[in-house]
Amino acid sequence: MSKLYDKKVECPICGNEFTTKKVLSSKLRVEKRDTDFMTYYKTENPIKYDVFVCSECGYSAMEKNFNKIRPEWKEIIKDKITTRWKKRDYSGVRSTEQAIECYKLALYCGELLGLSSYHIANICLRLTWLYRILESEEETKFMRFSLEKYKDFYYNGTFTQDTSNDATIAYLIGELHRRLGEYQEAITWFSNAISSPQIKNNLRLEKMTREQWRVAKESAKKS
């Protein structure tokens, strides 16, 4: 059985029906995970297919947000995206480069519609991961974008059932700082995560946080 299947999607902007590939969850085989939550698969990487792109109007978004459209957004997309859209099709098997194109389209749409910093940060983090696969210097740029957006959300956003909790976000901010070589900032954010009551509900996250706090402390001493 194929690891990929076709999912039928109706665009909430223009009503166009199109198909997009998805990975069968039963076929997923995890190889390893990085400390910023990037997952490596022995099979096809499902991250590459998390963005839906309407071939007709150009509206693009991550799957879980694709249909969450406000009425006034339709005209914004039609005016700012569709009028300049050169029709293209992302319904087939996506290369890493094509996946990056899809995420950048979703990022542009998200910024245009004023989506939350949490939503934008998630897109940028996945772009960070995809560029890591390519061993591209662009990884650092999108890591920085992601970091700043997560910090904005941490300070100014509202934690809901649709977002990660404050302990997870604080850990991720700390880990991104650490990966950027900003060890003192990383230590501070790991400490914020450890002091959060939410972390007691996630023993795996608590263990990761304490380990990365130790790694950041050692790196700070060496530098």
Description:
Pfam families: DUF2225. This is DUF2225 domain-containing protein. There is one protein chain. With 223 residues, this protein is α+β, with helices and mostly antiparallel strands. Helices cover 49% and strands 12% of the residues. It has seven helices and six strands; from the N terminus they run E-E-E-E-E-E-H-H-H-H-H-H-H. It is globular and about 55 Å long. The mean pLDDT is 96.
What portion of residues is helical? 40-55%
Strand share of the residues?
5-15%
How many beta-strand segments? Answer: 6
Overall radius of gyration: 19 Å
Order of helices and strands: EEEEEEHHHHHHH
- Work out the helix count: 7
Unreliable parts: none
Count the domains. 2
Distance between the termini: 51 Å
The average pLDDT score comes to 96
Category by helix and strand content? alpha+beta
Gross morphology is globular
Largest sheet: 2 strands, antiparallel
Instruction: Give, in spatial order, the strands making up the sheet with the most strands.
Output: 1-2
Keywords: TPR repeat
Protein name: DUF2225 domain-containing protein
Organism: Caldisalinibacter kiritimatiensis
TPR repeats: 167-200
